[in-house]
Predict the structure.
Amino acid sequence: MTNHPKITLLSILLFAIVAPKFLWSQDLCPNQIELLHALNAPVVQVNLGLNDEGLRYSLQKQTDLSFCPGPVKLNGQFQLNNKAFSTLIVMGGKCDDSTGISNERAYSSHVLVRSKDVLINAHHQLLINGHLVHEDSVILFIQNLSLEFFWKYEYRLVAYSVQWENEVSQSFREQIVQDIIQGFLMAADSVSERLYQKSVCQLSSEEVKTLKKDFQFALVLDKPAPLPPPPRKRMPEIKD
């Protein structure tokens, strides 16, 4: 990863607080679309209304690829809030001959998948990277977590492993995926402002390519592991 000027965690958080909030109702600019888009990957339609096995079967049928041993990158096309877009998704093979994606498993010869977990239980409670997060605070939490990917850990792939129980409604799944993407795009604007003194939408095509090499988004959609039950004693939720 290229060297970047050091900034303090406080300055990151202050910038995140004052950064303009991305409005999903607006169309994505070409640079945001490019930042999300997966290059050289099979195109698949992603139906978040399917259960875990149904989703896996649907994606495999569209590609004729085996997800064992994985991971396999796909260009997933979504329909969220009446808007179509595509983004990189990663499928790992949790099957008889594979242990699936782990945090240290090679994604390619140059990139490792070190994903942060986004877990949704049947009660629509969210556990993100070990923190119970209120649904209204997902965007800001993901924004700050994405900034940590870049400035603190220097991961090239900002990957979120999204897992839910089958009882979770389709609308809630779609809302959380939408919020994760929105949080990432807000983080991308923060990084862009720091590196280039302009937003992602104002970058040149070459600047977008450079940013994407070091700050690419991915959703990891793997067969869900058993999710933790809701806490017996209500845990404090992270809110704005």
